[in-house]
């Protein structure tokens, strides 16, 4: 920090004056009797009683021999009334050196001002932490999006609605965990570092382990270790954990995100479909008290059962192209050309079906909808459909045109799985760096026998977006991935000294 900065210099001078007066500006601890919201809600009971609160000074009005401040803790904020003739000149002079942003402890009696505001009539203020930087200017708050994400701590201080988003996020995860545990799912933890990245079509982040002299990858999915546990005899497992994909950043994607994956032995994708809609509806109701919510101006209805739609039926409905009459890769490529879709000349029919789906169907899936009937080429870990082996027993759940969940009857045929991995290796050799790698250990695990199993993955961040009406995934991740900036540049939202 440049000490010539005027605002910094002013606060340094105040800091030194406080220390000269034997005031320690960075306290060790402070005992509170109440939170601010508790006082506001229980005023009739607490009126006239002595209380102690602690929090950050959010406003300060100096009226000569009287000072009004508002102190904010996690639960809310309350007004503090300070009189010179009651605290004495010495303490009052010290308090005048307290700034907006400082963290203080307050002792005093609860009362209501003549204007009707519930307040604390202070008899003592204790400085707990001196803020050396001013908070953003009070009339405009912290509005710059770049600053809000980079300096989330300021965002949380200045914007109570942001804090509530993360309170809701915590509740969503807690309710999901309780729902699964009530159904005898066991929560487990699996490695974040993998020798082979698997379980999804995505680019991994790589690192190197010096002691073992091997390359390792941050996991791109939770899937394969969890299925190994089903092989080992666990019958219902789930994990909520961080996942990493070396991909672009958008309002829907962050390189580091949170997934919930579960696996249930002796179940198939239809069982998991029922579990999914029941769980999401349960979470929505627990969080909002209703099954109808508004997201970005669109009313969403989570009543069960949700709509079921095959991928081919969706393409026919929204593009007019019937892939049931298109049997070859060449015919599929021609259909793509006619619709103006850019696909590789050697793309398979299955991949082209997926391109049609993403272009014409996904944006129209506003209400909760299950999409089934995915081609085997884009589902290397899913069981083939018994009647139509070119498709898989898989579903994806879509809301507001965005994928929320992915699930399937797990492929437990080790010979088929090896062939699928080999086909993925061929795609990788052609330049598809998101294709799956061969995982010999996983195939070996299947050779010992994986029971019929249904699996599910849900993007926690996207679920939180829907349930907090957040437009961007960065609004629901406390510290989203950002490009480094020049730390010498002062943030434009930093305000003037008050």
UniProtKB/TrEMBL annotation:
Gene3D superfamilies to which the protein is assigned, alphabetical: Bira Bifunctional Protein, Domain 2, Nucleic acid-binding proteins
Binding site for Mg(2+) 2: 403
Gene Ontology CC terms: cytosol
Keyword Metal-binding (UniProt): yes
List of residues binding Mg(2+) 1: 396, 403
Aminoacyl-transfer RNA synthetases class-II family profile domain location: 166-484
Keywords, comma-separated and alphabetical: Aminoacyl-tRNA synthetase, ATP-binding, Cytoplasm, Ligase, Magnesium, Metal-binding, Nucleotide-binding, Protein biosynthesis
Keyword flag Membrane: no
A GO biological-process term: lysyl-tRNA aminoacylation
Localisation per UniProt entry: Cytoplasm
Name of the featured protein: Lysine--tRNA ligase
Underlying gene: lysS
